[in-house]
Write a structure and sequence with these properties.
Structural class: alpha+beta
Strand content: 15-25%
Number of helices: 1
Helix content: 25-40%
Radius of gyration: 24 Å
Largest sheet: 2 strands, antiparallel
Number of strands: 2
Shape: rod-shaped
Order of helices and strands: HEE
Number of domains: 1
């Protein structure tokens, strides 16, 4: 490998690493349930299409 090829390769790797590290995912809530005071865990019942939530404070 000549010097120019090595430099281009190093620059490409650096640019790729920078772009992948800079892309942070944005999380948005799909829905919100109330009136839970302190929900602890959730389990999905696929057969009945329901979510069961344990509420620690109530």
């Amino acid at each position: 490998m000549n010097l120019v090829t090595r430099l281009l390769f190093a620059l490409s790797i650096s640019l790729f690493a920078t772009l992948t590290m800079a892309a942070q995912p944005v999380l948005l809530p799909a829905w919100q349930a109330t009136p839970f005071e302190q929900p602890e865990s959730v389990i999905y019942d696929q057969k009945n299409d329901v979510l069961y939530v344990s509420n620690v404070n109530g």
